[in-house]
TrEMBL record, chains A, B:
Family annotation (InterPro entries): HTH_MarR-typ (IPR000835), WH-like_DNA-bd_sf (IPR036388), WH_DNA-bd_sf (IPR036390)
Protein name, entry field: MarR family transcriptional regulator
Keywords: DNA-binding, Transcription, Transcription regulation
SMART domains linked to this entry: HTH_MARR (SM00347)
Domain HTH marR-type: 1-136
DNA sequence: AACAATTATTTGCAAATTGCAAGTAATTGC
DNA sequence: GCAATTACTTGCAATTTGCAAATAATTGTT
């Protein structure tokens, strides 16, 4: 029972990574895993700048700048100057980008439902509470697990 | 409360990824995240072949072959032909590789302890049980989350 | 035993991804 | 009004990637 903590988490996050990879390939748009993460983050932040998203994802900003360019070419995200500070580019999903993100999201949730189908209702609730707890706890721990933006 | 399942997991795995990245940089050997994962996997499998580890990590085998080469140059892993089938190369950690892996492992566990320090003993136990449950459940779900080797 | 088929791994190459250094453009502070 | 800062972009040059093809060892077939 007293399994190494790290092992437990390592296995879990590896599996979740595979799921993520599968889903973004399955969505028909031939999106890379990195691109999928970008779409996710742009969708979930409020009027994010390039800098903000890059930091959230822990990517070098010059690399990220180019990733944004390629997603714009694919017509999945768009970039508009912030009217209040024209140095800043605000990112958003295009209609097509929203569709792709929604597609991925649905697949992920479907897979996750599948995973939870092996559990009782009580177990499922416990697991959800646990992940919520972990997220909160990791956010508190300033030493690690977060980027400057949290 | 009824947060999107995927969101919950996405945030968690992102955070865990940062932790992983931090740890392998902090270990003094300037190991990349990919290299850290390879060390972990080689250590945890029994006499793994190149093919096996590549599959576990979901990496293309040609790419992986080269990653192995660079880790051999760094004197962190070694490669010996399987006496029963000399096509197969069996991977193992060198003494130095073991040290690096142990170093990373300790750091990870230390960070994780830190995360758990924000919880009560009951909460901690619940979280551990939950992750164990998830791992089992993801393994059962053949549709996703695993490579051919599980 | 001979030789096609399979399996494990390695290279050639060309494309994609990365990050540092240096650049531009807009804003802030003194 | 001009130096300092901030947000972002480009020029490289190095690394990483994966497909196609090669090599080497083993297995199956006759």
């Amino acid at each position: 029972m007293e399994q190494n903590l790290r092992e437990l988490f390592q296995v879990f996050s590896r599996r979740f990574g595979f799921l993520n990879k599968d889903c973004c390939q399955a969505c028909g748009h031939n999106i890379s895993l990195v691109q999928s993460h970008i779409l996710y983050e742009v969708e979930h932040q409020y009027q994010p700048s390039i800098q903000q998203v890059a930091e959230s994802l822990g990517t070098d900003i010059t690399t990220f700048s180019r990733q944004v360019q390629s997603l714009i070419k694919l017509n999945l995200i768009s970039k508009k100057p912030d009217p209040k500070d024209r140095r800043i580019s605000i990112l958003s999903l295009t209609e097509e980008g929203k569709e792709v993100a929604e597609n991925i999201n649905q697949q992920m949730n479907q897979y996750l439902d599948d995973v939870f189908s092996n559990m009782s209702q009580e177990e499922k609730e416990m697991v959800i509470r646990s992940i919520q707890l972990l997220n909160k706890s990791m956010q508190k721990t300033t030493k690690c697990c977060t980027t400057p933006l949290g």
